[in-house]
Amino acid sequence: MKRREFIELSSQSIGGLLIYSLAGAPLVVNAQEGKVKVPLRFFTEQEAKVIMAACERIFPANESGPGATQAGVVVYVDRQLAGPYGRDKYRYTQPPFVDSAPGHGYQGKENPQDIYRAGIQKLGTGFFELAVEKQDEQLKAIEKTHFFQQLRQHTIEGMFCDPMHGGNADMIGWQMLGYPGPQMSYRAQIGKYNGVAYRTKPQSLQQILGYPVKPWEDEE
Amino acid sequence: MAKEIAGRTPLSVLVLERGGPFRGPVAYAAEMDEVDTFIRKRRAESPANGIFTTRASRNDRANPLRTYGEFPMVGTGMGGSSDHWGATSPRFMPEAFEIATHLKRLHGASKLPPDHTIQDYGITWKEIEPYYARAEEMMGTSGKAGNLNGKRIEGGNVFEGPRSREFPNPPHPMLYAPLLFAKAARDLGYHPFPMPSSTLSQNYTSPDGITRVGCQYCGHCSLFGCMVGAKASPNFTLLPILQSKKNFTARTNCQVRRIVHADGKAAGVTYVDDSGTEFMQPAETVIVAAWVFNNARLLMLSGIGEPYDPVSGKGTLGKNPTYAVHAGVDFFLDKPQNIFMGSGGMATAIGDFGGDLGDEGAKQGALRGGLIFCYTQGDPPVISNFGKIPEGQVQQNWGSEWKNAAIQWNDRYATMLSTENHFPYRQNYLDLDPTYTDKWGDPLLRVTMDWTDAERNQTAFMLKKEVEIAMAMGAVGILPRSGTRAAPLMVDNHSHGGAIMGASPETSVVNPFLQHWKMPNLWVVGGSALPQGEEHLTMTVAALAYRAADAFIDRYLKRPGALA
Questions:
Q1: A215 close contact with B: CB closer than 8 A
Q2: Domain holding B459: CATH number?
Q3: Closest approach of chain A CAs to the CA of B472, in angstroms?
Q4: Is A189 in CB contact (< 8 Å) with chain B?
């Protein structure tokens, strides 16, 4: 059996501490110092550290708000890769695999798990220990690759997904944008906010429904 | 078809559906998740089963669609793709049904694009109009008439064909960008109107006695099931009626593989259920309604009809596949849009370029256009639309500078699109792929299609008009995009053709009642029947299905045989 691997995240990343004012100003409320161990489903601890560092360079914490590390993007990516998506359960995988024009989309044989493993090897397992300038240089060198494009897309997904997928911790991504979450009705608001921001406290799907939903990555 | 036949005749109706049963609105509420439903397309037909292959020309090798990616998705389960449509519901222009005759009269045959295979439908506007009205009443379409029995009405689409009835429901409210669009279009001398939408603007009871509630504008519309039943999915408009009928049965998770036939008569179908067992289902009549391209494929796999040959131009099966040509611009406004609110069909449109493009178009090699519209369909706005930034503002699409710009412009862009005419051509066709198969080992459908100068000219013409309107709306940045997918993946949910209707068995697969020319007890219903690419096609498909049902019940059953 695979040894259980964990990634250590700052406790900020897993909830309850980051708050956004409706005006969009980030307030870090009394961040507790502390570390939380999150069990990994696909990555080894070292791989998770590489991906966490790379995601943070793609979507860094800066003056306009928190970044990929605080949102827990690596947890999102880890779960997607461990689930049916990562194993290509729903992709058409009949050979022959022949390259084509970009319009045909990715036509390769390797599944997302393979692509990430190879991508991490390319970045080097010590990537997370490099200075950020060095990290940026390395990412720049691979930015045209399928791996990087996937990583970039997954970073955005992990920033703004429903928290049930493991990213967007404490809905900080949604707070940053003023997105209210999957509200069931805007009938009272429709037509009344033309050109005026309607921003309300975000709610997750589980909070709105009152019960948890099983995300796809939890299926076999 | 099923609802009309089960409701009006004693015949026993069996629906074989490859996907699962209707999951219901409560399940749809729990599917309001952008990652699983919109991006990964958890509820779509799994690409792993085999969707189709595509290529630009017959000299190329075709590749399979391996993941949906840019392609919207193919529906599965009860209701099919109509369960997750955006509900944009215009009718075609009246001359569209006699387009070959119309264009030859207008321009002369020599002015039509080279190698075109443009042909008439074999019906007229007068013949289809009552069925459009019936489809709108069944769905509760929301809109405003622009031509009621020949009387032009400002505020509706004054260019539309004469309609016999006002829309059953008033239009949806216009949101910020569509309001600006309406004003700008009016200032430029155009005629804006609310795009018809088959999502209810208010509570509504259809002539069938089905009551549904008005849209909640939740913003999870296109590619989602509706969690209140406001969207006109057949699961909400028709299935409740069918379920109470003793002569109706639906079997789900049953993939039909062949139409069984002998001596020019269909005898039934073979299908595989989810245990993998294959059955032969006998039938008096077979109605194929398996999604636009799968209709043609099922006929090909069953050896019914003469496959089209792009070299000789002979044969009809697989002929005239088309698409709705699009041109689009994303543009930026200085105010927040709240794009997370809205519904799939909510838009303001102009029909000024919706049909013939006149001398101005002809000079630029563009004969026909389509509706131009600015929409707020509440695309799940978080992930899928994140990172739209006016051209030239950032050097790379990741990192700190990019993030700042993406957040600054988030929720400040609007989208304009046109859905346009697409002419059919001799070299564009459908056949069976020689290499790739579906999960049961049957060949995938192969789509061979590419653009010609006619589409490029037409797109350029429409794009110029769109940019003009966007500038007049006060756009502070423009992100031009070709809404039209490039070859070799030029297919979409809005694809047409492959088993087309027409006035003669020499040029079409089904007659104007959608009855197979060579097999009177076989009917082929859906977008496959449309010989040309046009506007959003659902209302036309529904109208043609009603017309086919009437012909089947009122004429065919009384005297089984060829109706044309």
A1: yes
A2: 3.50.50.60
A3: 17
A4: yes
List b or e across B315-350, with b for residues whose CB sees 16 or more CB atoms inside 10 angstroms: bbbbbbbbbbbbbbbbbbbebbbbbbbbbbbbbbbb
Q: How many domains does chain B have?
A: 1
* Segment B259-264 long-range contacts (CB within 8 Å, at least 24 positions apart): B259/B286, B259/B288, B259/B298, B259/B299, B259/B302, B259/B304, B259/B522, B260/B302, B261/B302, B261/B304, B261/B519, B261/B522, B264/B518, B264/B519
Tell whether B187 is covered by a domain.
Answer: yes
The string of DSSP codes covering B389-449 is: --TTS-SSSSSHHHHHHHHHHTT-EEEEEEEE-B--BTT-EEEEEEEEE-TTSPEEEEEE-
Question: For residues B542 and B535, what is the distance between their CA atoms, to the nearest angstrom?
Answer: 14
* Backbone φ and ψ of B518, nearest 5°: -105, -5
d(CA B528, CA B519): 17
- Mean pLDDT over B287-291 rounds to 95
> Measured between CB atoms, does A157 come within 8 Å of chain B?
yes
Q: Does residue B86 belong to any structural domain of this protein?
A: yes
Quote the CA–CA distance of B545 and B554 in Å, as a whole number: 14
Q: What domain range is B362 assigned to?
A: 2-556
H-state helical runs in B418-561: 453-472, 538-550
Strand ranges (E), A21-90: 26-28, 35-39
User: Does A198 lie at the interface with B, CB-CB under 8 angstroms?
Assistant: yes
Cross-strand partners of B445: B432
HEC sequence for B246-309: CCEEEECCCEEEEEEEECCEEEEEEEECCCCCEEEEECCCEEECCCHHHHHHHHHHHCCCCECC
Instruction: Name the residue with tokens 């009871």.
Output: B205
**A52 close to A44: Cβ distance less than 8 angstroms:** no
Q: What is the C-alpha to C-alpha distance for residues B239 and B2, in angstroms, rounded to an integer?
A: 9
What tens digit of pLDDT does each residue of B94-153 get? 999 999 999 999 999 999 999 999 999 999 999 999 999 999 999 999 999 999 999 999
Query: Is B563 contained in some domain?
Result: no
pLDDT per residue of chain A (220 residues) written in tens, 0 to 9: 466 888 888 755 554 444 444 444 444 444 455 677 889 999 999 999 999 999 999 999 999 999 999 999 999 999 999 999 999 999 999 999 999 888 888 999 999 999 999 999 999 999 999 999 999 999 999 999 999 999 999 999 999 999 999 999 989 999 999 999 999 999 999 999 999 999 988 999 999 999 999 999 998 7
Give yes or no for residue B294 having a pLDDT over 80: yes
B562 assigned to some structural domain: no
Nearest residue in chain A measured CA to CA from B60: A100
Helix residue ranges per DSSP H, A59-188: 68-71, 73-82, 112-123, 132-141, 146-160, 172-177
B494 is catalytic: yes
Q: Whose structure tokens read 């039943």? A: B229
Listed by start position, the domains of chain A span 6-218
ipTM above 0.90, yes or no: yes
Task: Name the burial class of residue B33, with classes exposed (0-12), middle (13-18) and buried (19+) by CB atoms within 10 angstroms of its CB.
Answer: buried
Task: Write the residue in B335, B340, B435 that is nearest to A179 by C-beta.
Answer: B340
